[in-house]
Here is the input.
Amino acid sequence: MLLAVAPAASPSPAARSLLMSYPSGDAPHAHGPGHGAISTTLCVNGVEHELLLDPRATLLDTLRETLHLTGTKKGCDHGQCGACTVHLDGRRVNACLVLAAAAGGRAVTTIEGLGDARTPHPLQAAFVAHDGYQCGYCTAGQIMSAAALLNEPCGDSDDEVRELMSGNLCRCGAYANIIDAVQDVRGNR
Ligand code: FES
Ligand code: FES
Here is the structure.
């Protein structure tokens, strides 16, 4: 069990709008949970964490800065790049757009929970085999997105995979190899 305080770093647009909905006298302090902090249990990769959360803290910041699960990356912090993709109850979400408090009681899975060097998820192995990355910054998000895609309705063609992976940007342009890796795991290579 871990009792920790989630910081209020870089609130997303959604978090900012929530803050704006506070009566001014009730708004939590800008640099800490303040008296508006709420107690939440986050279940991440099968481990429960009891946290005292600033209501403005995003799931992304809480994972990285409070739980030190830095495999999930922050790119745009605005829901546009997919670097922060994690699973919430098995479905992919942008962690920068989810308030941590809203993830309480739900199953959060990050890249650390998908596999490791000894027992990699088939997609992790396929990304290595197909050279599906260059700098690697987008890779965790790509793999988490692809892992969810395996359970979504998706046709066999590369174009359909491209469409369903279109929320995950790669500034290195490793797209061709990423598609190869995903299609390999789907049995289409
Ligand atoms: S960091 Fe979340 S979508 Fe870019
Ligand atoms: S591998 Fe560098 S951004 Fe995708």
Q: What stands out?
A: The domain at 122-186 is CATH 1.10.150.120 (DNA polymerase; domain 1). The longest strand covers residues 38-44. The chain has two domains: 38-113, 122-186.
